[in-house]
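Q: Here's a chain of 231 amino acids. Please give me its 3D structure as tokens.
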Amino acid sequence: MTDSNVIERKSLHLELVERIRPLIVESQLLPGDKVPERELCERFGVSRTPMREALKVLASEGLVRLEPNRGAWVTVVTVEEVEEVFPVLGVLEALSGELACAYITDAEISHVRRLHDQMMQSYRDRNLADYFKTNQEIHGAILVAARNHTLTNACRALSARMQRARYVANMSEKRWADAVSEHEQIIQSLEARDGKQLSQVLIEHMKNKKASVLAWLTGAAPKTPSRETAE
């Protein structure tokens, strides 16, 4: 039986990027650690050439650091990086919201509504992992609806740099409740196709996410809600 981890089609470096990125975001590969290239090549059944190409892409996203003759290392998120990236990401997300309201179809709005309802169920279940996953899908769907490839590429690149910090950062019960309230405003603005309102909500949403990540980095974050589904 073939190992489910092995890539059976042509070894494309972008496929490897999609496999390795979650390992970094979810801290299976820890900040500051060397990327185990040989182990990953064996795991995914690829040669070192596409692996190295994949690591170049991840380096461009800020997830790894390449060192000549020493390999690749998982980067460490810093306060300075958060302070620099989040304001730019907030502006891009706000623009995506404004454009999405101009171009989004009824079917796409229905899709985002289903994702929103699914995310709300994860919140009620206290399942932070599923909540986070669906949250990212919502932001991704709005970005796609903006119909702007340049914006999509720029936003995804910056989001990837911050996704790891957003995934592991402590989030208090109050912050989680506030984030849910913000998402209620997001879906309402989207359904009303109110681009200006959605843009403002997304700006504020990203400011609050930045504050949560900074609190985690500086050790000022409150206790994290349970990441497991409630009994």
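Q: Can you summarize the key feature?
A: DSSP finds nine helices and two strands in the chain.
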